[in-house]
Write a structure and sequence with these properties.
Two copies of one chain form a homodimer.
Chain A lengths: L8 E5 L11 H13 L4 E3 L1 H4 L2 H7 L3 E9 L2 E9 L7 E7 L3 E8 L5 E8 L9 H7 L3 H25 L7 E8 L1 H8 L21 E2 H4 L8 E4 L9 H10 L8 E6 L2 E7 L4 E7 L19 E8 L4 E6 L7 E2 L1 H13 L18 E4 L2 E7 L10 E4 H24 L10 E4 H6 L2 H6 L11 E5 L1 H11 L3 H11 E3 L6 H10 L19
Helix pairs in contact in A: 8-13, 8-14, 10-15
Chain lengths: 516, 516
């Protein structure tokens, strides 16, 4: 019997019965598993038991057993002849509020097989989670939201499988990471108390659920692992992110930040973890500034300053004529405006330094980023002072959260050996720009590490390594959650951080700027 | 928190959440259970999680939690406000091949609430288990047999509940005991290999199954415990019988016998158990002799001899005119015939001593038990020499099995301090008559103890005492199964036991008879 590296699959050989060993089929399978599991604590679902006698008598004695564990109890999820051409597979699911990402994984090799992403179909009910939670107040609404996401997943999973010659019935494990509200909606749990003081989820640590019980079109007995949460505002997606970052295994103290509508921050090392979440402001997601939008074709995602010409160099996705700007573009732009003196340290536009790019529309000052002749919309692309104020509040909130969490444990931000930035924010943001406006601390650029989709990465890790289950429990149990009470101290810090880059310039020695 | 005596129910008080204790609903319930279970290893089904937030917020903090255990893992099956007028209940099911018996039990008090029995609807496919197993060869046949028994159970359970003001959804536990083939058919498992060498069940020790997965009309999350078997020919009904008898707890060695188509025998004490099963012959069940039948109105169940008048006194069920004879009546009759000298020690009718009650029909000697004028059928009720021969073979098989099992461990039958006789056989048989023909050993009559329906009794015990789960495991693990190889030694014993009461009269000192 070979033990495969991922731990969820064991290669077994089931002995034939005889008058000397007339143990039942199920018990012979369990006995064959015993050496690999160091446990006889294995249960076999009725659905598999019903197929078992035929299966072990026709498939030959050598089988892959796919298992899942809950504490010390194993569930046998599937048995596959080891001669089968299609490998047993699993699916990692990043259940985002706006966007859902799937990755098929070969459970034998641990290799990814295919990947896709799609808009969360619940957006039809409401783009924001709050609207959905209210919609879920009635059981019909809850069922509706569940149907939307489950049907969406089933459609995409089926398509993904077809693309690589797999049957959905050949998917035996799923790992789902999402925020607390999303995982509740996915499981059909009442999310009502998540948003009402004292902010109580239905469950922190869901048991593995059978795919059939969730309505997922995998093997009906497939076990679906849903990452645990710490509370209403600290979800399984971040636990998955910590798992993926390896933060919890390092000797030195490092930090992980995941920015969406909320900024979620984890600081720690292999001995302790502290976490908090706070509203970082929606400016970074797009949707607030008139020209702000999610990343997409023609969206400005890079802005650089030609210091001599005082000209911006604009980069758009797919190099199309610009139609709007996304979070990373906005941060770049703000940095350029500030470094060239067009913004003052309070974040206010300085008209006399703006080379005639200021326009007054409906009584509001607008800065023309792209004149109509160069834009993809046929109109000027502008941002207003109000848009910039919103960004400044966001960056101040972010820095204040970072400062608060690090000071709460007496760690200086400057001592961090690594600063992990998760998500699309982490992938696209230019740390240099974020430092210039004082959004991120002034660390050597090499300290910043983009993790990509760490939620999906953590879910994938679980599918490829059974030991992750213990790691996840350890992460969950070792996190101290810091409640960000907005007290006077926090507000003082926040006020100081509302300057560009900060009232205390000593914190940002690398930011070199002339001007008012 | 009060601990209720049966162990499956705990009275808990779930603390309200607060900003200081913002643990999720499920985890607060589990924490409230922890002191009673000495474990946090509790899982809550999705179906219950979906109702949990509303349930704990509207019911008041005091609840009955109904649980079931599998090894060290608890499943929370239901939560009921302790102010509810209807008690949480369970159902014990004796899944007989011919007859099914149900008993509703109040889980709080342990008291039985109602009981009923009905013919196993699978009889429509075949009265004997072999026909049904062949019918189950095709998946449709298997589904058909399962539907028959499950629908039959659902109908009767619903009727029973209605009779005592309960809802089927208020049934949270079920305990099912039956022979190995019946439990396989009930679970929808392929019974094919049970009857083919080397006689392999699909499973020996089924996991608790959710009622919904079996199609049972209880609470969908109710856990159904199915008694484990030792093998194809030693079923959960006998494990339940041992549990009910207490055989496995006694210091002194005692014996349990359950007679149906097979005679199943267990011998042992708290240190060891040995068991065997053998064909005892169908003579005892009715259906072989022309007048033989199952117990029912007008059936002769008692025969006594008036030694002076050489007349039989006949007792019938409900005191109706006699229409046939059942197993206990047949044994009485044979004893009377033998003791009055109408049967010789070889079990042959002695015409000259039969007072003209012998009649020749179609060349066969018939003994008139009831002349037509007294019978309820308008015809003579007779038994033939062939019928008596069949009974003699059965009684010889029974005695030989008892002798073989006791000699295998060096225990003399005469040393037994108690001899438990289970089932309807045990309830109705007159041990004096059985001793007279040498079917049972010549022990003081007080040694014989009738257990009634010990299969149902064991199932009921499990519902009223969670510790039985360990007892059942201990019983299962401590039984040595003795394969009754029909070898020369066995055949020699069998030949000796075919005499009335036995070739060795010293074994039956109490049988006092004159005659040839």
């Amino acid at each position: 019997m070979t033990e495969l590296k991922n731990g969820w699959i064991k290669q077994i050989s089931v002995p034939e019965p005889s008058l000397q060993n007339n143990t039942a089929d199920a018990e012979r399978v369990i006995a064959a598993l015993k050496p690999a599991l160091e446990s006889e604590n294995v249960s076999i679902d009725l659905g598999l038991l019903r197929r078992l006698p035929g299966l072990i008598r026709t498939s030959g004695p050598d089988l892959y057993a796919i298992l899942f564990r809950r504490n010390h109890h194993w569930a046998l999820v599937g048995l596959v002849p080891d001669a089968d051409p299609a490998p047993p597979a699993g699916v990692a699911i990043d259940l985002g509020t706006s966007r859902v990402v799937l990755r098929l994984v070969n459970l034998l090799s641990g290799e990814p097989l295919a990947e896709c992403s799609f808009d969360n179909p619940q957006v039809a009910v409401g783009p924001d989670i709050l609207t959905r939670i209210h919609h879920a107040d009635r059981p019909e609404g809850r069922a509706h939201l569940r149907d939307l996401i489950v049907n969406g997943l089933n459609q995409e999973i089926t398509r993904l499988c077809r693309g690589c010659g797999l049957e959905p019935a050949g998917l035996f494990l799923a790992a789902v990471s999402g925020n607390t509200a999303m995982t509740h909606l996915f499981m059909g749990l009442d999310p009502k108390w998540i948003i009402r003081e004292p902010y109580i989820p239905v469950i922190n640590r869901p048991d593995p659920v059978k795919a059939a019980d969730l309505g997922l079109a995998l093997n009906p007995l497939a076990r679906v692992f849903i990452f645990p949460n710490i509370g209403s505002y600290f979800g399984g997606d971040l636990i998955a992110g910590i798992l993926f970052s390896g933060l919890h295994l390092r000797e030195e103290t490092t930090l992980l930040v995941d920015v969406g509508t909320n900024a979620e921050v984890v600081l720690g090392n292999r001995n302790w973890l502290i976490a908090c979440a706070g509203a970082a402001g929606p400016a970074l997601e797009g949707g607030v500034t008139k020209m702000g939008m999610m990343a997409g074709p023609g969206v400005i995602d890079r802005v650089t300053l030609d210091p001599d010409a005082k000209q911006f160099k604009i980069g758009t996705i797919d190099n199309l004529p610009p139609v709007g700007i996304c979070g990373s573009g906005l941060i770049d732009l703000a940095a350029c405006l500030f470094l060239s003196g067009m913004l003052d340290i309070r974040g206010k536009l300085v008209p006399e330094r703006c080379d005639g790019r200021i326009r007054e529309t409906e009584g509001l000052a607008q800065f023309v980023v792209v004149p109509e002749k160069d834009s993809g919309t046929g109109r000027d692309l502008t941002i207003s002072q109000a848009d910039i104020d919103s960004l400044v509040r966001s960056k101040a909130a972010m820095y204040t959260i970072l400062e608060t969490i690090s000071q709460s444990v007496g760690t200086a931000l400057h001592d961090l050996s690594a600063f992990f930035v998760a998500g699309t924010f982490g992938s696209f943001i230019n740390p240099r720009s974020a430092i210039s406006i004082g959004m991120l601390p002034d660390l050597p650029l090499a300290t910043y590490r983009s993790l990509g989709n760490s939620s999906l990465g953590g879910a994938t890790r679980l599918l490829t390594d059974a030991d992750c289950l213990n790691e996840i429990d350890r992460i969950r149990d070792s996190i101290t959650y810091l409640e960000l009470n907005v007290n006077q101290d926090f507000m003082n810090r926040f006020s100081a951080a509302k300057f560009l880059p900060h009232t205390n310039r000593d914190l940002f020695p690398s930011v070199d700027r002339e001007g008012p």
